[in-house]
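Apologies for my clumsy wording, but are you able to produce some protein sequence, whichever is easiest, and the tokens describing how it folds?
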Amino acid sequence: MIYFMYDVIIIGSGASGLFLAANLSGLKVLVLEKNDRPGKKILITGGGMCNLTNCDDNETFLTHFTNKKQSNFLKPALSAFSTSQTQNWFEEHGLALVVREDGKVFPQSLRAQSVVDLLFSASQRNGAQYKFNERVSTIKQTDSGFSVSTGKETYVARAVVLATGGMSYSTTGSTGDGYVLAKELGHTIVPPTPGLVGVTIQNYPFVELAGNSIRKTLIDFTHKGEPKRYLRAQGDLLFTHNGLSGPVILNNARYIQKGDILAVSLIPTENKEIAKQELRTFIQDNPKKQVYTLIKGLGLFSSLALKLLDSQGIGKTDTCANLSKEKRLNLITDLVDFSFEVSAKNSFSSAMVTVGGLCLDQFDRRTLESRLVPGFYAAGEVLDLDGDTGGYNLQTAFSTAMLIAKALKISCKKTTE
């Protein structure tokens, strides 16, 4: 058996692992990756364009996480390396960026490969060594640090950073390996579930509408059998071949359960009661207007308008005066509170992020070093941190990696003095 000595071993070369290696100049670094190349998951983020961050200030950014515990834990990392600092870092390293009107930041090339190439090159310039096709099987504490074993070799290092990701997009290699390794060292795992994922709908009526979307829908989320909603959220909705997706679903998937009822406004609105009253008045005041023309004018695209009318037994040329009281009430209800029953959340294979992961209580939020195992750190999605879609999770990977980089430079310097 051959033994090697490193200052730091990074397990995983996703966003957090690559960024950490790109910021560890002056240390002897080894990156172990079970895939045959780095950054496989980065390549599919943002539809392959890599929405690497956004323009939120720190306070706004932290509101896009599951709970107060997560935002409090992340605060030191974000304070040390904010969204604006991330943009500056990439631009200073030669990557031109473009900022969209919604504040999302992409590489100007709109190619995620540009981000991977830059991070990989920067880390190699720092002297980081990579071992691909090496899946870590065990991490053990030693008198001087850690021994990390793969199917090929055992490596020794002063510190180990777990940057394996969670279980989302499992085809890229994120299969929960990090949870097993951390658990063997005594860490607690918050049970992982798919996040930023679409839902399938029971008896879904809009199969043929797949790919179409609604802007600024308002959705009431209710657990089956419960009278009161547990959540109301507004955002863009996407129809899929078997259910619903889009930001308003993805960002709230962490809360959705099988059997939940989603009451969806098919028209843009910020107040459902006002919308219903306005619809009643509009229909009453425009008896000669075709119903199809009326609902299209409210923002429905043609195929959805026709599908809705057909389900109500209303013809394309029928006027408002032709509507019976029952049809008028049913139409208004469907426009403002169309009911969908969730049959399931989609699986990890299509989830953008993992909800759950390494228990935050067991890590020092100021350094991300384990409170249980000195010299052991965790970065990015392997931790119990999950943000909304829109650059929040990649920024978390970068911020946590940078915080660890700063801590490692201090700790490794002390051990060599």
Summary: The mean pLDDT is 94. The CA atoms of residues 218 and 270 lie 7 Å apart. The radius of gyration is 25 Å. DSSP finds twelve helices and 18 strands in the chain.
